[in-house]
Amino acid sequence: MSSPPETHTHPKRRSMIPDVPHSATLFVERDAKGEVLNCREGLSFWGGVDPDTGVIIDAHHPDHGTSLAGRIVLMPTSRGSCSGSGVMLQLARNGEAPAALVFREEESILTLGAMIAGRLFDRPVAILRLSPPLYDALSKAGEAEIRDGVLLFQDQAIELHRPGAGALSLSEADRSLLDGKDGTARKIAMEVLCLMASAQGATSLTDVSRAHIDGCILAHDANLDFAEKMHQMGAKIAIPTTINAISVDRENWQSQGVLPDFGSRASRLADAYVNMGARPTFTCAPYLLDDIPAENEQIGWSESNAVIYANSVLGARTQKHPDYLDLFIAMTGRAPNTGVYLAENRRPDCEIYVELPETHDDSLWPMLGWLAGARSPNGIPVLTGLEAASPTPDDLKGLCAAFGTTSAAPMLHVRGHTPEGALPLRDGAPRSVITAGDLAQLWREFNTADDKVDLVAIGSPHASLSECRNFADFLRGRSCHPDTRTIVTVGRAVLATARKEGLIDRLQEAGVQVIPDICWCSITEPVFPTQTAVLMTNSGKYSHYAKGLTGRAVRFGSLKDCAETATSGLASSGLPSWLSAG
After folding, report:
1. Is the peptide bond before 526 cis (omega within 30 degrees of 0)?
2. Alpha carbons 367 and 209: distance in angstroms, whole number
3. How far is residue 183 from each of residues 189, 193, 329, measured CA to CA in Å?
4. SS3 content of the chain, % helix, strand, coil (to 5)
5. Does domain 172-342 have CATH number 3.30.56?
6. Distance CA 568, CA 479 (A)
7. Residue 163 has what pLDDT?
8. Phi, psi (5° rounding) for residue 55?
9. In CATH, 447-576 is 3.30.499.10
10. Residue 539 DSSP one-character state
């Protein structure tokens, strides 16, 4: 006897789950079914998930080695790189994406990637946000299903709310773009901006004066396909826009052993954005350019370290926009008016008191950033106890970049050193402490590799002019060890000034290779030396991502430590003196 036909009758909702209005929201629609995977920590898909397999490659994540493909994946929210949207698109296109992503808090990076996958490539991935009680209940389920706008798990049937853009206040110019009066490309851009504004709870869009494009690295084919598709549709950039680091030295890759196919496609990706109207700055540190944003200036930047530096150190205002949305912002000069564009959302959510060591070097700041992000993965912290310190702009650059690897927040405050460091804490804000012991523990975590170092990697984010000067001074009169390659990555503007000052000649005479356009988050073999087993860096950001990106072991230290290792070929085997003294 055959089985009765399957019906679409849903089980009743349990009374244990409160009926909160809009407590279950479906942002990207698609029916899905799969095993539930509960990731207790947020994850940066870029640098944290293999874009071709869906396996978690972040060596610091508790679910390292686990596959997300085909599963109903829960995580509080995403974190880290704005480029996660591109990884999301790549996974969707090659059939290795999660069946659905379920968040407990606001999330935009992976949501945007799923929107683009559906809207431009017909490969949507379901995206949900649940209230904490529903989220906790689902986390205990073995499997779940989304069917016809209903979330099914155990004996629950949860109706999913669909956000609408009806409450969004739009200008006449916005509506004109939505009506397609300025072409299909800008119509799509405005449609997605409105959808993201609704997903983020915004009631309007806001003008931005400039943009920074992050989706220009050939980490996978999705980035190239998106950029060329938009260019072919006639996309044009409407406001001053800079471009992030790319995957090749645009002018010299043919002489660096780069495979012609990869070099050509990476160049096409960069050229697509230039042809749409962006400046070929090719730097992940746009705050090092001559024309930097002013305090309170509203901008539309992507690239996590740049966003955090702009908000925190410059006092400019920008959300951490996902890749692809950055182009839509550049095409329209508009962004969802939410998050840290609004003054009330820039107040600190927690205080982190730092027990400042009596002495320290520049390696303190990346470690503080990493630890602060781990303490405040989803909120804006204020760091206190550092009033007696004297951080340089390079120190704050390292702090912000490392913070972005462990936190989803678009900024942090440092009392006494950042423009809004005196903003009052929110009522009931928690307080935690970073001790010398915490710093020592992280230093050990960053330094598990052998002492013999094959590669010294400087420039994540791109090295500043002062970092180039200091590194050259540390190497003065010495040469790099013949078995240790030393590479500094820089933006074109810094390269030009450093060359005029004679710094490039000094570094090259010491055996240092200086490469523009690419950075350590985009470098690939053979420009990344293939024989490398252990690399050393002064970057907390690269210390976090390098193992997952390259498969190599990592050492970490100050800029001076890196210079010493470059000349000796060996990293110090113990804690730095300023930490061991404590």
Report:
1. yes
2. 33
3. 10, 16, 16
4. 35, 20, 50
5. no
6. 9
7. 83
8. -85, 140
9. yes
10. -
Residues of each domain in the chain carrying CATH 3.30.499.10: 447-576
pTM: 0.91
Helix (H) / strand (E) containing 553: strand 553-556
Beta pairing, strands 300-301 & 211-213: parallel
Report the pLDDT value the prediction gives residue 23, as an integer from 0 to 100.
87
In this prediction, residue 165 carries a pLDDT of 53
For residue 25, give every residue at least 6 positions away whose Cβ sits within 8 Å of its Cβ, in sequence order, or none: 128, 129, 130, 160, 161, 162, 163
Phi, psi (rounded to 5 degrees) for 112: -65, -40
For residue 36, the SS3 value is strand
User: In angstroms, rounded to a whole number, what is the distance separating the alpha carbons of residues 185 and 563?
Assistant: 48
d(CA 372, CA 402): 9
Would you tell me which CATH number, out of the four given (3.30.530.20, 3.40.50.12280, 3.40.47.10, 3.50.30.10), belongs to the domain 24-159? 3.50.30.10
Residues 6+ apart with CB under 8 A from 475: 506, 507, 510, 512, 563, 566, 567
Provide the pLDDT for residue 573: 87
Which active-site residues does the annotation give? 81
CB proximity list for 463: less than 8 A, separation 6 or greater: 471, 488, 489, 490, 494
Tens digit of pLDDT for each residue in 511-544? 999 999 999 999 999 999 999 999 999 999 999 9
- Block residue for tokens 């994850």: 43
Mean pLDDT, 10 residues at a time, the chain of 582 residues: 35 40 85 97 93 95 97 94 93 97 95 96 97 96 97 95 80 96 97 93 96 96 97 98 98 97 98 98 98 98 97 98 97 98 98 97 98 96 98 99 96 99 97 98 96 98 99 98 99 98 98 98 96 98 95 98 98 92 58
Rounded to the nearest 10°, the torsion over CA 403, 404, 410, 414 is 20
Q: In this predicted structure, what is the pLDDT of residue 498? A: 98
